[in-house]
Design a protein that fits this description.
This protein is an all-alpha fold and 269 residues long. The chain is built from twelve helices and two strands. It has one domain: Orthogonal Bundle (Farnesyl Diphosphate Synthase), CATH 1.10.600.10. 70% of the residues lie in helices and 1% in strands.
């Protein structure tokens, strides 16, 4: 049966790995997990695994759930008063505003830990799967997402190199995890995984540029500090062309990546 990878499909996977207890922390976790996110990271992972391996395996589903747990934890902590201090997320009260700061911290901690618990339910005897798990948590830690948050908090955006480094570290890392983990668990060679990583880095820059343009009144550090909006839009189109060229080098049907690039360039939120 053909797998239709939709937001609803991803939601079902996520729910299947949630704990069954109903305490306040779990309520906060669910509040943020099901707050209207696009699910594009797990969808990229699943589509990549399917493109490379021909089907969506249980290992790919587990990694998709774990990836979304990591992403949601990062949003909760990013909104905290000690970080970006945001009262709203996706049109709703942020987690700490809805449940209190202590509960929000615990919810973020629990989601990161749940990601680890979840991946251990997968085929740990499969070398490719274990490699994908290792890459996911590499991108989640000080070599990835945490480094990106550190750059956001403690450095200045002085030039395009600074803005690009921040975009790849804070936004690009989980996109890298999506494509590389999907490719790896699908059976891609190390050389092919490197090309998927290159695509993901460029896609992370494009996504952050559009975010910065859409949030121009809110962003304290952004590509708009160093480039005009028109120059940035042109840069996105250039990067999209480079992404398409890399996709064409790979022996897989990757139309979904090209379509995502176009959708990102045109998005209004």
């Amino acid at each position: 049966m053909k797998t239709n990878i939709t937001v609803q499909y991803v939601d079902e996977i996520i729910r299947s790995y949630l704990p069954k207890n109903r305490d306040k922390v779990l309520q906060a976790m669910e509040y943020m997990l099901f707050s209207g996110g696009k699910r594009f990271r797990p969808m990229l992972l699943l589509n990549t695994a399917k493109a490379v391996g021909g089907r969506v395996t249980d290992g790919a589903k587990i990694l998709a759930a774990a990836l979304e747990f990591v992403h949601t934890y990062s949003l909760i902590h990013d909104d905290l008063p000690c970080m970006d201090n945001d009262d709203m997320r996706r049109g709703r009260r942020s987690c700490h505003m809805q449940f209190g700061e202590a509960c929000a911290v615990l919810a973020g901690d629990a989601l990161l830990n749940l990601a680890t618990e979840t991946v251990f339910e997968g085929p740990m005897s499969n070398k490719a799967y274990v490699g994908a798990c290792a890459y996911l948590f590499k991108m989640s830690g000080i070599g990835g997402l945490v480094h990106g948050q550190s750059l956001d908090l403690f450095t200045e955006t002085k030039d395009i190199e600074d803005a690009t480094e921040l975009a790849i570290a804070k936004t690009g890392t989980l996109i890298r995890a999506a494509l590389v983990c999907g490719a790896t668990v699908g059976g891609a060679t190390p050389q092919e995984a490197e090309l998927f990583d290159e695509i993901a880095c460029k896609l992370g820059i494009c996504y952050q540029i559009i975010d910065d343009i859409l949030d121009s009144k809110k962003c304290e550090k952004s590509f708009l500090d160093v480039y005009s909006e028109s120059d940035l839009i042109e840069h996105v189109h250039e990067l999209n062309g480079e992404i398409a060229a890399i996709c064409d080098k790979l022996p897989y049907e990757l139309t979904f990546i090209k379509e995502f690039c176009q959708q990102n360039a045109e998005r209004k939120k």
